[in-house]
Amino acid sequence: MAEGTWKDYREKKHSKPLPLRGIRVLEVCTLLLGPSGPGALARMGAEVIKCEMPPLGDTLRSLVPFGYWFREQSTSFIRPNPNKYWLGLDLHKAEGQELFRELAAKVDIIEENQRPGVMEGWNVGYRQIKEINPSIIYISKTGFGQWGQYARENRPSNDGAAQAMSGYAWMSRFPGQRPLKSRLYICDSYGALMGEVAVLAALHYRKRTGKGQFIELSQSESIMRAMSWIWPYLHITGRPAMPAGNGDVSICPAGTFRCSDDTFLALAAPSPEEFRGLCIAMDRPELAEDPRFKDHLTRLQEENAAGILGIIADWVRTKTPAEVEALAEKHGFAASHLYNIKDVVEDKHFRERGFVTEVDDPVVGPFLDYEFPAMMSRTPPRVSWSIRPVGFDNEYVMTQYLGKGEDEIKKLYECGALGKWTDVLGRRPPSDWDGKAGLIMARD
Amino acid sequence: MTDMEGQDWVDWIRERDDPKIAPTRAEALDDITVLDLSYKSFAGCYCSSMLAEFGAEILRVEPPEGDFIRTCTPYGILHKGEGLNYLAEGRNKFHITLNLEKPKARELLKGLASQADVLVETYRPGVMDDWGVGYEELRKINPRLIFASITAYGQFGPMSLSRMPDYDNIIQARSGAQYDTGEMMPENKSYDDCPWAIPTKAGPWIGWINAGTFMAVGILAALHWREMTGEGQALDVASAEAYASLEDWASIWYQGAGVINERFGNLNTAGWLYCFAPTKDGAVFLGALRLEMWQAFADMVGKWDEWDAANWRDLAPFSEEEEQLKWAPLVFAETRKYTNEELVAMSVKYAKNGRLAPITPVVAPVCSPEEAVHEANWLDRGIFVPITDPVYGELIVAQAQHKMTETPIRTKWVCRPVGYDNEHIYLKYMGLGPRKLKELKEAGII
User: Fold this and answer.
1) Which 3 state secondary structure label does DSSP give A159?
2) What's the ipTM?
3) Where in the sequence is the domain holding B232, given as residue range(s)?
4) For a FRET experiment, which of A24, B26, B243, B278 has its CA 20 to 30 Å from that of A409?
5) Same domain for A408 and A308?
6) What is the pLDDT of residues B356-385, one digit of tens each?
7) Based on the domain organization, do B296 and B175 belong to the same domain?
8) Residues B205 and B116 in one domain
């Protein structure tokens, strides 16, 4: 193992450079599909200026689980929005649009998730921005893309709509039961990630040629891309693709099984050596030679798969999760109890790797976040600071990026181009905020 | 919206990013060479696919008998000898063989690695080092190399040397995402009565695919760093971490309030209105995360007065557990009166002439994959355009998910059998002609 390479990774990550140092991003995004893309770039060191409409800003600031606010902030808002600079900018106002254009001339990337045509209506669409910054990389992320019937109908979308329309939810359920919505906002989070593949590929191309470009991303199309065998299967067999509950029609054995303590455990052992290991662990070595189970393609046939999965289910029912996990480790197959959120947050391995990481934020206070999961030996991505109220960094952004003086900034507030938070839960700072902590540049 | 010449934005952009014109455009990564040594891992295959779609030259290295992942195919079905999952992710890659158990093969790998920009591998930590082709070795011959490892537990940490392999269903289990997805147990019922009311994983291989996509993003960021500094580096994705990282609020809730999030069926713990709702002929997704959208929904189904929607002042109270459980049946009673198509049409119409127009609730039909693959909107957008592959014939794989004006992605071919490109690639990169290749093959090296 590359011990030297990863030695003290967690302890030393803050004293190493960030991979996207020097890249500037302007974000006009709300909810999750929009902000978590630039959120990923910010974790890798890009300077992200998040523009929100004052005084309420991002809709996500309102969303919390069963009414629970984390230190008076939205629980849902924290993870997609680390390391950003917070600008309260009203794009309905001509002066706000002009400010945006001044910023746009100085950034590398613009990310937005308004409905098609809205940015152009604000005079900050791709066609308008490329006139002042021809090398801009401009990504628009929506449910259905910029063109086609659904875009033309101006349909709004959410993560759940993409789970529904792609067939993803339909394939995620027990046979005979209703399609299930993932409790993750998977089409938002995954769609956003897919968007960053294109943004960073475009950045590479720009480095070679100087050319920027426009990227459109649809969250439904992104999740369809992730549905592997389903599309060729429909085409080749002419049969409908069917859901398989906690089973996996492409891997055998693989499944979720009920343990002796009525908790659940996932297990997989498809390769020859893994399957042999499992059979030995079950004290049934002869099963590895059984003609029904002799190789993977044979085991995958429906009847054979049902046979071996039934045998495993009966065996696991007599074991605790810890017993099966220990046998899996010993015999080289895979098993894990189903982690709940406590297990994830407290997992020793996740902690020692620094995946679950402590953030000591001047505004939000100390909390545990997840680090960007592609760890990088020379340039470790990380969270340094957290969310801020609407317009919190206005003065810094105006001074640092645009060189505006105090009088100019004052005028921008007066005409309403700039604004700050209002006294609403999820918008204002925590009540114990001292009026200074976290500010890069104080107003007056 | 129209520009100076009066052309509508939609027409203007479609002229420039319709996947139909992709083959005429440049490729973003066609200066990059990637060695993909993935084994038993769809995450690795998917990662290199992300780069292959943008034109990177992928040398897909398999053992002479082929990657086990090729046998991971629904019900054991093969198409012209190929598994259907692998068929979807062999795109644009050159397939070569190399038996890394043999020292001579490792020398060949070093020769390839010294010419590559990126190496993707998925062996258990330590395996590549034992073969003498780990990051510490390869960086000596190619300091610019980006060495990308995707594994179950990652390259370091107390579990990193675990013998347990990396499979999608294990990722979904260890990330926490399966635990709190699924149907709630009906009152006074047990697992024996309702074996489906349990933690439920996603059907697609999202755990693997997500890990591969995070690595693709990491690789591209590392490329940017390399262009600035000339330095390569090692990258480490632990697949369960990658999937766990998509979680937004449950960990914060647990830290702040000690609450462990549990299954909430097709409702949404962190916000109303956001659910699947039954209809006359199936189900729809309903989304209205702003008060006006929820009011628009009430209005759209004719309940504006009865529900007193005009006097709602705040969406937040509706998100409370008891309120959701109270309101959901009322909403479902309305949606059951209509078909999916009717409800979608109502929401599109409401956006035009409803009381709160253009505000309208999100209404989306829950579709089967067959419905999706035949849907005119997606066909028009080029996602399911059949590809005629020289080896595998006409196929449909999802593609063209990125529409881009300068460097759109494309699918040039779908897949290749094991070792299909040995001749071309070993000649191109290592100067090995047919006679030498034959020797290597006979010696069991390729």
Assistant:
1) helix
2) 0.98
3) 31-246+416-442
4) A24
5) no
6) 999 999 999 999 999 999 999 999 999 999
7) no
8) yes
